[in-house]
Amino acid sequence: IMNPPCGRCSKPVYPTEKINCLDKYWHKGCFSCEVCKMALSMTNYKGFEKKPYCSMHYPKTSFTIVTDTPENLRLKQQTMLNSQALYKEDFEKSKGKGFSVVADTPEMQRLKKTQDQISNIKYHEEFEKSKVRSDAPPPENRQDEQPANPERCIQPAGQVLPATVAPPGGGRRFQALYSYTATEADEVSLQEGDLILDVEPIDEGWMFGCNQRTGQKGMLPANYVRPV
């Protein structure tokens, strides 16, 4: 009996290595995906026009080859980043906390910058909401809010008020334990030792205050400062 030719290499197929599939005979080693050449078996192949494919490259079910253009890959990645940002935001809301800077990994920092516009808007939204939230400190820890006094934030560089003298008009004071570089337009940069005036807690992760050295007002990470 003459041995039939292989569907891939056309050489004779002997009974010991014969696979009979898709109306053809194949060497076991020749029965592979048309696209990626991955070795296939009778249990995992998909046939199309009498040719074998792996499930990834089967023309009827996967559009991977067609759609994975650089533009589509970029869109896919952007969508993924968006969903990660929204997940982070939802997670923060569910906890009622700000996003701790200590937990910020380089990956999250990069994500934060990628989502600059989104997070900027959300920060402002959250900040506005936080003004009417009920999780402020109890009254005994919070002094009555005073009208802003411009003199508090125009001390000459290098001049630090003695810790024992409260600034005019009250308000809580903190000192920076570490340097911090602002990553958003509404944040304040810190240098170790900076004095922060008129501090108001926003939530467990963030505060609002005025850097006496620079005169800048804005948000700062709570775990970078300590009360004085």
Automatic annotation (TrEMBL):
This is LIM and SH3 domain protein 1. One of its GO terms (cellular component) is focal adhesion. It is found in: Cytoplasm, Cell cortex; Cytoplasm, Cytoskeleton. Residues 128-152 are annotated as: Disordered. Its main location: cytoplasm. Plays an important role in the regulation of dynamic actin-based, cytoskeletal activities. Agonist-dependent changes in LASP1 phosphorylation may also serve to regulate actin-associated ion transport activities, not only in the parietal cell but also in certain other F-actin-rich secretory epithelial cell types. It comes from Menidia menidia. GO terms for molecular function: actin filament binding; metal ion binding.
